[in-house]
Amino acid sequence: MYDPTSKAVLDGTYVHMSRGILNGLISQQTSEMYRSNVAAFTGMHDNLSYDSLLAGLLYRGETLLVNNQYIYYSYVSFLDQHGNSTTKTPMRQGRAFLTTQRLLMLSAETTAGANLTKFGDPKKLPGGYHVETSCNDTLHYMSVPLSCFRSVELYASVGVKSTANIHGQAPCCCGLCGFFGMEMCLKHWSVDVTQGQAHNDRYITMGVIMPPWGTRSFLQMYLNPSVPLTTTKDFVSDLQRHAPGLHDKIMPEAGDGQIG
């Protein structure tokens, strides 16, 4: 439900000694707000299926690749050439179809999202966290010609991590007797409850000369955990095979510092 930026904020709550209480409160509040969104939600897409939408989007002679399969994504970010700033509105969950001519991205379903941001310094009062949830019936379509692609990178990581904070506490005598070597007068240490967290991160990052104005961009597609890794590999392989900028020999331009 969380977008990548919000997940990073949530992961960063480990700095709080009371993070167990904090995470429980964030989860509870997010769930309550989502239920309220669903109760007030009204759909709009008139029962249009992906197949019916796709049928009118393909060019004559254009065929689907990846064994006629699609990539189910949960989020698509559009970043600048440095991979930092967002350049346009992200796409929520949907399907990516790779064809012999284009990458088609189509979101046509009910989507739920949650944003988590900081305000002030959460480690100091009155700082804290801001939660926003949404429930939308989204229709979002975008196509990128294969001639626009310049790079592709696949990243997949599945695992579990554990975190714990070890805190220092001043001795009861404020350390005034520490030079006597008495253990009770030395600084004390305590550890809070260990927190375990599973992760399943899969995304494809593509360098693109983004239409319509030829802007250098990164298109980062976060995959749904249900997408098989073999399908993801086929997607990357077919993209490399059919995108001219990924398999043609690109000659350096004059004045690029090459040695003659």
Outline the structure in words.
With 260 residues, the chain is of the alpha+beta class. It has 5 helices and 9 strands, in the order αααβββββββββαα. The chain has helices at residues 4-11, 19-40, 50-55, 229-242, 244-247; strands at 71-80, 91-98, 102-119, 128-145, 149-163, 166-169, 188-191, 195-210, 215-223. The strands form 2 sheets. A 7-stranded antiparallel sheet has the order 4-3-2-1-9-8-5. Strands 6-7 form a two-stranded antiparallel sheet. β3 (102-119) and β4 (128-145) form a beta hairpin. The longest helix is centred in the N-terminal third of the chain and has 22 residues, at 19-40. The radius of gyration is 25 Å and the shape is elongated.
List key phrases describing it:
260 residues; alpha+beta; 7-stranded antiparallel beta sheet; two-stranded antiparallel sheet; 21% helix; elongated; disordered C terminus
